[in-house]
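User: Structure with magnesium ion, tokens only please.
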Amino acid sequence: MALNIKRPNGTEDVLPKDVHKWHTIEKIAGETAESFGFTEIRVPTFENTDLFLRSVGETTDVVQKEMYTVMAKETKFTLRPEGTAGTIRAMLQNGLLNEALPQRVYYITSCFRHERPQAGRLREFHQFGVEIAGSASPVADAEVISLAKSVLDRLEVKNIELYINSIGCPGCRAKYHDALRSYFQARKDELCDTCCDRLEKNPMRILDCKSPVCQEIGSNAPLILDYLCEECSDHFEKLKEYLSKLGIEYKINPKIVRGLDYYTKTVFEFVTTEIGAQGTVCGGGRYDGLIEQLGGQHTPALGFGMGIERLLLVMEKQNCRFLTPKKCDIYFATMGEAAVEKAMELTKQLREYGFFSEFDLMGRGIKAQMKYANKTGALFTVVLGDNELEEGRARLKDMESGEEKEILLDDKFVGSFDAAYFDKMMDSIENAETVSAFQNLAEEKK
Ligand code: ATP
Ligand code: MG
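Assistant:
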């Protein structure tokens, strides 16, 4: 009978054959963040709705159109549409900002937005995000951008451009808003309803509207960079200097305003043209006012969110390499009940060493078992039958070369392996599990 319940629109299943791709990204992202002094944080999937209203902003697309909110008893909860608000809430609630600054955290987590599903735009998606709290210096902006860039580089992603902008502080923003209001006022009738409403409340949001008409009107709007105060302007200049020092290429895009209200000063995006319209793989910036807005002391902060599904799309398109999935090191083909019991004992020993070892669970004949071992790519096989059990010895077969070596079937089992065989199995563990092996491969390729 066909299953007539399907997964919800805009969600994805990650199947066992693809999960190594996620592991690669998670591992490289996590290790890179840790090398920059970040530690992982895990916060709840849902928060009080007010948290997002107060941080992301009431006039943003996210809040106005995209949040999944439920009323549970008397309280409104929302599935997190992004990672920053919950992370800052957790830092405040747990007193992290009273500890040594800067506080640096990262997360790899699901986010939920009710959008029109398309390639690179899902309703449940995942972000690798980082936040630094406590530093007002443009050096921290350079550090965060450099971290995003290192992750992309280590994943060998190419053709991705960094765009930066500054959207100033509330001081420069006030003058800029006035300029925008007078500009848009002239063509108010053509704006979409949401943007008409934004005109008074938050005109900069019009620049982030996805409607083609609003976008066309916005294309000649005044630019924020012409309205920066001296401090914001100096901050931006310093960032540019640091990026150049780090050898990180960038372009200035004075039109980036980002989709969340909490940003101040630096905003940036890493964009590719290789995966269609949803080409922003990473977006971030500074949010100096957010912590105070959520009830903390004034604490400058910044971060980014990198969309893992979009990153995967680019990596697949560019044939980037992923850590190889682990294959079985030793497969035991068994004949008879006594052999099954022996296989249980030997696999247990091997697994204690960290090897991947298995035996038949299906009650299949020896031929079918060998076929299975072949198909699943087992490195070595051992046939266990009455003869082998009686003699206490068996033959370990290298499935690649066909070569066989004798091994003992007692507690010296692992010790009786030929050194070269042992190395080959160890290599398979390294290859699957350590990024350093991945890095060595990258070195060799150069
Ligand atoms: P966009 O302009 O593409 O809607 P955004 O400004 O809403 O992006 P952010 O809130 O800054 O995006 O989120 C950071 C990153 O998360 C984005 O750069 C993107 O890679 C990813 N992302 C955002 N929304 C989605 C989504 N619906 N599906 C998949 N990835 C997403
Ligand atoms: Mg969006």
